[in-house]
Amino acid sequence: MRDNLPTIIKEKAGAIAGDLSRIRRVIHQYPEIGFKEYKTSELISERLQALAIPCKTGIGKTGVVGIIEGKCPVPVIGLRAEMDALPIQENSSVSYASQNSGLMHACGHDAHIACLLGAAELLVSLKDKLMGTVKLIFQPAEELDGGAKAMLADGVLDAPRPDAIFALHVDPDLPVGSVGLKEGPLYASIDELRITVTGQGGHGALPHRGIDAIVAASAIVMNLQTAVSREIDPIQPVVVTIGTFNGGRAGNIMASRVDLTGTVRCVDPDIRASLPGIIERICRTTASSFRAGASCEYRELIPPLVNSPEMTGIVKDSAAVLLGAASIKEDSLTMLGDDFSIFLDNIPGAYFHLGIKSPGRGESCGLHTSCFDIDENALPVGAALLALIALRVTNPADRQIRPGIRESGDRR
Question: What is each CA distance from 238 to 278, 295, 351, 367, in whole angstroms?
């Protein structure tokens, strides 16, 4: 691949920067919750059709998939962006603030869509240099931990099956023009915990005549922390958090039932497999010590997000030639999660962070907050990087053939 291609891509991305901002602002104004991204899906499909990119809608209920065919059928590269918003009331005076009460793009998915649509436009304009196929995946319901599963159930990885897959996520702690990368584990698994504690109600002034479910449940909350501090190797990252505690009807009535919900996060598969048994035992024996009962429902939602070293290297190489080596920042493992991990469980790939912080700006509003916003100068950067990754992966003249990536062949 010619050395000046990164420059060409940057120039082309700069030329469509205004369009990307307009697209992102329209999506931001009309956020939609998971599996109800009807207008968002319509906007995406109309944009793809305007670019003469064949697409299918209704994949995973509201997802959209587009296909860009280059000179050869393989390799096939997947690029994914999420579409859903969050149930947050926006607190902003910007002209493009949410018009849908109680909903907001507070996680940057509007920016992800704009970046992927921008990458699609760049790839179409450089189709003569595309030596494989690019599959554009616009996913619903990432925040509900169900969108990736729904798309896989509808065959999103079939006909054609990607050899590798990539996705970006905005990062308000990174400046515009920088990229965060980490090979191996990046995000934790996400599992859901529901606990029901049962006792025997009675008068609050006569506690000896009943079984106080609130006291038992309180002890369970505290003892669950020993699952991490005393039963798991201390160098292994594990989190058990109880987020809701509901029980009782009045201050002078002893509660007969308490319902708890929580989240469990870890990285190691063996530890993940052991946690349901540990948690169930702690809940049951703790409740028993107060003469109460406890039942646990443990649901595995999504696995840890683990980046392929090879694919992370492709992102790193692409970012270096496009933005400069100094733009690349080393990411740290976090106990956050993203259901892109489900794609990575099936296909090698990489997930990376895109800087959206304005130069010289102080502390930014974080993800999932009512004041979250981005510096839109990041949009052409994200679009250019996604496009360059696809071109570099599919073109054997620009790389060594990577393990697991099919070599390009004539489309005839």
Answer: 13, 22, 21, 22
